[in-house]
Amino acid sequence: MAVYTDVSEGELQAFLKGYDVGDLLSYKGIAEGSENSNYLLHTSGGPYILTLYEKRVDHRDLPFFLGLMDHLAHKGIVCPLPVHRRDGALTGSLAGRVAALITFLEGMWLRKPTAAHCREVGKALAALHLAGADFPLSRRNALQIAGWRKLWAGARDRADEVEQGLVAEIDREFAELEKAWPVDLPEGIIHGDLFPDNVFFLGDRLSGVIDFYFACNDFYAYDLATCMNAWCFEKDHSYNLTKSTALLAGYQSIRLLEPAEIAALPVLARGSALRFMLTRLYDWLTVADGALVQKRDPMEIVRRLRFHRAVRSAAEYGIEA
Amino acid sequence: MAVYTDVSEGELQAFLKGYDVGDLLSYKGIAEGSENSNYLLHTSGGPYILTLYEKRVDHRDLPFFLGLMDHLAHKGIVCPLPVHRRDGALTGSLAGRVAALITFLEGMWLRKPTAAHCREVGKALAALHLAGADFPLSRRNALQIAGWRKLWAGARDRADEVEQGLVAEIDREFAELEKAWPVDLPEGIIHGDLFPDNVFFLGDRLSGVIDFYFACNDFYAYDLATCMNAWCFEKDHSYNLTKSTALLAGYQSIRLLEPAEIAALPVLARGSALRFMLTRLYDWLTVADGALVQKRDPMEIVRRLRFHRAVRSAAEYGIEA
Fold it and tell me: pTM value?
């Protein structure tokens, strides 16, 4: 939610000389993306997004992230297309940062998505999974259970400050998830962070999927479980079964889930909730008040975790194996 | 440098129904303007800036600010044009804030302006002064010496924390300025904050003057003295006489300064430096580290104040009466 690195007009002009995008008309730092600095550029060739990669992104992963967007866009997924430099490269250097230019997608992210939007998200996620199947690179998911353990180690000491009893509850959750976590589900490239602010709509039409900086290789059904957490809970913490049914049906209209994937949804949803709760908890405890990184209440996600813990089968999500 | 108020797509669509600007395609919160929340909109009718007025702006001043932009734009000044609603109004209500839609100006603000740019700024400032002469509304400058006194009262106790001896120095400065401040110079509408981030260029052509939220009635030469402070000092704190000469010559090519205005420039420049030093000092001492308001070192401006204090006549700025 911030612009960390300021860019001068002169250095931006020099950077753009490496591209075939016309003349620079304006650039504005935009308050989107929590990890990098982003600018919206207007050029005589059209609008673009300029991203400067800050310290939270490992630069060795950029060929994976940008290559994946390139691959998906060429397979018809509505995601930003990294612009190639005249020399063929996808990144350059700007203001002391590695930087990339990507196409700008019109559309708005929805603060209040409906079931119809959830269906479109399900379809887009399945299409993304299919389109990524022949992408030649791979990236380990650093935020699997072992990675969550590390986050938890950094936050556990003070977690009871957030809610009394949270330490015992999360310790128990880890023990159960490590026992119940599936080992043999269909896997491939997942988006990893398909929350509403990463999906654009124009009316009811899904016009863009953005922010591939958590993409990695993992279970497809885990990605779907993240969408359940991201799209189907209401502000009052209730789970909207209509949205969930639409999300899952949308997904299955493009890629049919195997019975084992469906059966695993409750445990995958618990794991996904735990993963997002832990990153929020870490920020909650370590980031100064009023800082540039927006802090969000980890307890909102603990409530989702508790919901999934009480689910006995995926039928409660509106899907039958 | 922040977006304080989030706007949902639904409420923005509803707000835009009051305007004749086509369909909404996208909107991004932009990291510009320290006082208000600003969004860059793309509509089928083109790009626009949406401003939500936050608490630092007195809403009773909006007819002055927006009416002035409207007046100046129609007189050929390259400034944003407030878009009239279908019912004729210049503001509406959005997300619990008073909000206005203004035209988007292409162009970049310059981190490293040259003397040629300073000349253009001088010309634009003089043209703005002339174009504002028949604007029917007026607004008292709240940041004249009496207003500075209030800022100083809120910061004086802790000013020596910033630099030992600052309290005595600024007390002395107030005493001298109150004695030497001119009483009878040509006056009218001034911009009040014409720093480089409020002026856009496309190449060497000045393409926009923005941010009229400090505009008020005061001495024209005071506005010019603010530009000297804003445009003519280098990063190493030296005063660039070439830029100053160009700024003043540019101004005079459009509006000739009276001998009394020229003679008053050193004291006006001291007053302007004091005014901007005090708002920085206030933020420096009161705003939490890492907060959304960007803090800038007040001592940078104290150095400018000291420079002007040593100036014996405006000839040292590159202008003769």
Answer: 0.90
Structure tokens at A2: 């911030």
At residue B288, does pLDDT exceed 70?
A: no
Structure-token pair, residue B223: 């506005």
Find which of B23, B28, B37 to mutate to test the A interface (most A CBs within 10 Å of its CB). B28
DSSP SS3 for A126: helix
Which residues in chain B are contacts of A2 at CB distance < 8 A? 31
* Residue ranges in chain A modelled with pLDDT below 70: 1-2, 33-34, 288-294
Q: What is the mean pLDDT of residues B147-155?
A: 93
Task: Flag if B107 and A292 touch (Cβ within 8 Å).
Answer: no
Question: Rounded to whole angstroms, what are the CA distances from A237 to A240, A243, A299, A310, B110?
Answer: 9, 14, 11, 14, 47
Each residue's pLDDT tens digit, B216-228: 999 999 999 999 9
User: Which phi and psi angles does A151 have, rounded to 5°?
Assistant: -60, -45
Contact by Cβ (8 Å): B123, B254: yes
Q: Which residues, 6+ apart, have CB-to-CB distance to A200 below 8 Å?
A: A105, A106, A107, A108, A109, A206, A207, A208, A209, A210, B26
d(CA B135, CA B90): 17
H helix or E strand, kind and range, residue A24: strand A24-30
Total Cβ atoms within 10 A of residue B143: 21
The residues facing A208 across adjacent strands are A200
Ramachandran class of A291: left when φ > 0, alpha when ψ lies in -120 to 50, beta otherwise: beta
With an 8 Å Cβ cutoff, is A289 touching chain B?
A: yes
pLDDT higher than 80, residue B72: yes
- Is it the case that residue B34 has pLDDT exceeding 70? no
What pLDDT score was predicted for residue B1? 46
Enumerate residues 6+ apart whose C-beta is below 8 A from A89. Answer: none
ipTM entry = 0.88
Residues with Cβ within 8 Å of residue A74, at least 6 apart in sequence: A81
Note whether B24 contacts A200, CB cutoff 8 Å: no
Domains in chain A, please, with CATH?
Answer: 9-103 (3.30.200.20), 115-317 (3.90.1200.10)
Helix (H, G, I), strand (E, B) or coil at A8: coil
Average pLDDT of chain B is 94
Contacts of A85 (CB under 8 A, 6+ apart): A18, A19, A92
- The CA distance from B191 to B213, in Å, is 8
Q: Would you state the structure tokens that stand for residue A314, as one six-digit string?
A: 């995926």
Please, which residues 76-105 of chain A have a Cβ atom closer than 8 Å to chain B?
A: 104-105
DSSP 8-class letter at A257: P
Residue B313's contacts (CB-CB under 8 Å, 6 or more residues apart) are B263, B266
Q: What is the 3-state secondary structure (H, E, C) of B232-294?
A: CECCCCCECHHHHHHHHHHHHHHCCCCHHHHHHHHHHHHHHHHHHHHHHHHHHHHCCCCCCCC
The set of residues, in sequence order, having a beta carbon less than 8 Å from that of A38 and lying 6+ positions away, is A3, A29, A30, A32, A49, A50, A51, A52
